[in-house]
Amino acid sequence: METDPDAAWRPTCTPRSVVAGEFRQLNSPGLMLVRLDLTGIAGEPGRLRELVVAVQLLRRARLLVDYELDLFGGSPRFATIRENLAVLRAIVADGTTAATFTIRPTDGQCSPWVDEYRERLKASIGPWLTRLSDELADDWAEVVMGERQIYGPSGVAAHRIALQRLTLRSNTELLNLVADSAREFELTGDTRLLDDEFVRPRITLLTESMLALRNRFLTARAAAQASAAAPASAQAAKNVVPLRRVG
Fold it and tell me: Which residues have CB under 8 Å from 22's CB, separation 6+?
């Protein structure tokens, strides 16, 4: 039987198992990330509430939340997009997880109207998902690793707050853009909200903010490490025993 090499450090569970206390790895030493199985949640209010509670419990355990969601998954309709957006908002609402999703081909199983919107959306926000959301996810992994060090890197608490604000801003703008453009396209068959002249400046501004925040954190951490190393080096120098010449 094949085993998943990622299973030990990135276990998969359902929101229901987390809420019911059946996810036994929740308090495992060294566990940093949990992948949530989102099957069957979209469009089900009860299971959506379970998801909200499960995410809160994982947050309290200082665990990163991973997931995979096809925005057009299920029956590819505009109603499906709204349902999947509700799932995404439940996961990323507090800004400690970057909003991301896949836009897979519909294989002709939807109306030409939905398929055209899918193509427009994919072309418009692709850089948002790859250049911004993925990079924010990496930054959150860095934060969690820093918090788990014995002393933690200098400034990690302040960096977490700033990163959370930036991630929340990116998530809100991205999901609102999808919701508003989908609504407009459904009603009129077109939308200018996805035009490059409107979307690209937003991606650029958020990306620049992310890079500036990351550089400030790395600079502060390097300075703190250098400062901590200096006294140790000085003490080591004092403890050096001079060699005596024999003979």
Answer: 16
pLDDT of residue 5: 45
Q: How far apart are CA 151 and CA 149, in angstroms?
A: 6
Q: What is the pLDDT of residues 89-135, one digit of tens each?
A: 999 999 999 999 999 887 667 788 899 999 999 999 999 999 899 99
Question: What is the chain's mean pLDDT, rounded?
Answer: 86
32 vs 98: CA distance, rounded Å: 16
List CB contacts of 116: < 8 A, sequence separation 6 or more.
Answer: 185
Tell me: the pLDDT tens digits for 71-85? 998 888 999 999 999
Judged against a pLDDT cut of 50, whether residue 2 lies above it is answered with: no
Q: How far apart are the first and last CA of the chain?
A: 71
Quote the CA–CA distance of 14 and 9 in Å, as a whole number.
16
Dihedral (CA of 147, 4, 100, 194) sign: positive
> Can you list the pairs that 26-34 forms with residues at least 24 positions away whose Cβ atoms lie under 8 Å?
26/57, 26/58, 26/61, 26/63, 27/61, 31/63, 32/63, 32/64, 32/141, 32/144, 32/145, 32/148, 33/9, 33/63, 33/64, 33/65, 33/66, 33/141, 34/10, 34/58, 34/63, 34/64, 34/65, 34/66
Asked whether the beta carbons of 205 and 213 are under 8 A apart, the reply is: no
172 closest CA partner among 78, 121, 99, 80: 99
Band (pLDDT 50/70/90 cuts) for residue 240 is low
Q: Which residues lie below 8 Å from residue 217, measured CB to CB, with a gap of 6+?
A: 155, 156, 159
